[in-house]
Specification:
It is a single chain. The chain is α/β, with parallel strands linked by helices. The chain is about 40% helix and about 10% strand. It has a nine-stranded mixed β-sheet. Strands 1-2 form a two-stranded antiparallel sheet. Strand 10 (about 330-335) and strand 11 form a beta hairpin. Helix 8 (about 180-190) packs across helix 10. The longest helix is centred in the C-terminal third of the chain and has 17 residues, at about 290-305. The chain is globular and about 55 Å long. The two termini are about 25 Å apart.
């Protein structure tokens, strides 16, 4: 937790005004007190490095930047506006915090750990269909939207799609970097894009090109990062690290490169048994043991504490049982390019098509059978089972609902359980 940045926040009149407005909203809830509000703020800040960008503070990429209309949307996205505090600490939301939308499954790369491999059957949603879906997502209260693929920059209408969102959501584009020219980055920024996440796994160009299955992948990533920064976008390096490649010195080399390029954040992703990796369940050195995951978390926290690098984040930390837990179908959800609703990017369970029924209706159905956030990654828990019982994936809705009911948990991750005390 960087004390200097916190001091800057709490002496900012805009921040004070926004916090006071949240305090007044939550005061309507009899379970709330200012002491509990302060406790919640301290829990959110735990282990985080705050980044100031474009007049806003990025506390955690699990949440929208603050202060913003998107953060307001995040706070209010509960069923009962007179029980905002209670419903937040019990994760009783009327929309997930974030939705990832795969606007295309087309991609020129052939990544060895692609989670979207095999989802390219059927027609992509049209521009107008996506616009309708985006409006529904925002009306529900979704405060963070990730526009992903495939390679989303292959959509000729990508600028129009980004421009379809209003300020109620913070929008981040996930890309390989190929096609992100400075002109394109500036146009996307003008359309309202907040940030860009660009895939870069290592400082070794040959290794990055090999794992991404594209000869110039490294150069395109570096160029995309530079163009994103120069356009004034919040810039994230997204790196996938296999367990056998988990090495502190090599990660610190990547952090040094990120620092040199003035990147705002490095997000470390561990491989998930999904897509291309569904058939590699027995391969050693790919998926993380609990010890390796703990080491990854320690590396991230160490890097943030030393203060000389950009913000370092890991889902291993954010989605651990010690923090917010796995939010598949509760805090986070995913829509394929054909409009099929999944609990998350990595869980191939089909809960209906958003081109045929409203997102809100389908999400509520899914959310009810999934229950509360889980203490471990749902994809890693359930996907081996799905592979055994299904001839093809995604699993159909009826079977998906039945399995999700079986997998409900009663114990909340620690962020929520701590706030409930």
């Amino acid at each position: 937790m960087n004390k200097r940045m916190i001091l800057r926040m709490v002496t900012n009149p805009k921040v004070i005004k926004r916090l006071w407005s949240y305090h007044k909203l939550m005061k309507r809830d009899q379970s709330y007190s200012m002491k509990k509000g302060i406790k919640m703020a301290l829990e959110i800040l735990k282990g985080e490095k705050i980044v100031y960008h474009d007049g806003k503070y990025v506390i955690c990429t699990f949440m929208p930047p603050f202060p913003s209309e998107a953060f307001d949307n995040h706070i209010k996205a509960v069923h009962d506006q007179y029980k905002i505090y209670t419903e937040q600490i019990y994760s009783k939301r009327r929309a997930p915090i974030s939705f990832h939308v795969a606007v295309t499954h087309r991609c020129m790369y052939n990544c060895s750990y692609c989670s979207a491999r095999g989802r390219g059957n059927g027609n992509e949603l049209t521009t107008e269909q996506w616009k309708k879906v985006f409006k529904e997502l925002q009306d529900m209260g979704t405060s963070v939207i990730g526009v992903t693929g495939g390679e989303p920059l292959l959509r000729e209408d990508i600028e129009e799609l980004i421009g379809a969102f209003d300020q109620r959501s913070s929008v981040v584009l996930f890309t390989t970097g190929k096609g992100l020219t400075l002109e394109k980055a500036k146009k996307l920024k003008k359309r309202g894009l907040f940030g860009v996440g660009i895939s870069l796994d290592t400082v070794d160009p040959v290794k990055h090109n090999t794992t991404r299955g594209y000869a110039e992948a490294y150069n395109y990533a570096i160029e995309g990062i530079k163009n994103s920064k120069d356009a004034g976008l919040y810039t994230i390096i997204q790196t996938v690290v296999l367990e056998r490649d988990l090495d502190e010195s090599k990660l610190f080399q990547l952090f040094e490169l990120a620092k040199k390029m003035r990147v705002h954040e490095v997000k470390i992703l561990e491989p998930i048994m999904s897509g291309e990796l569904m058939n590699k369940a027995q391969e050693k050195g790919v998926f993380y043991s609990s010890e390796a995951r703990k080491r990854l978390i320690e590396i991230g926290l160490k890097a943030n504490k030393c203060g000389r690098f950009p913000k370092i984040t890991t889902f291993a930390y954010t989605e651990s049982k010690e923090r917010y837990g796995c939010g598949a179908g509760t805090q986070h959800s995913y829509i394929t390019a054909q409009g099929d609703l999944y609990p998350c990017d990595f869980v191939p369970m089909d809960f209906g098509n958003v081109g045929e029924q409203s997102v809100e209706f389908l999400w509520k159905e899914m959310n009810e059978v999934i229950g509360i956030p889980k203490g471990r990654c749902f994809a890693m828990e359930i996907n081996p089972r799905l592979k055994k019982i299904a001839h093809s994936l995604p699993l159909d809705k009826e079977k998906s609902m039945s399995i999700c009911r079986e997998c409900q948990v009663s114990e909340y991750p620690e962020f929520y359980s701590n706030m409930q005390k």
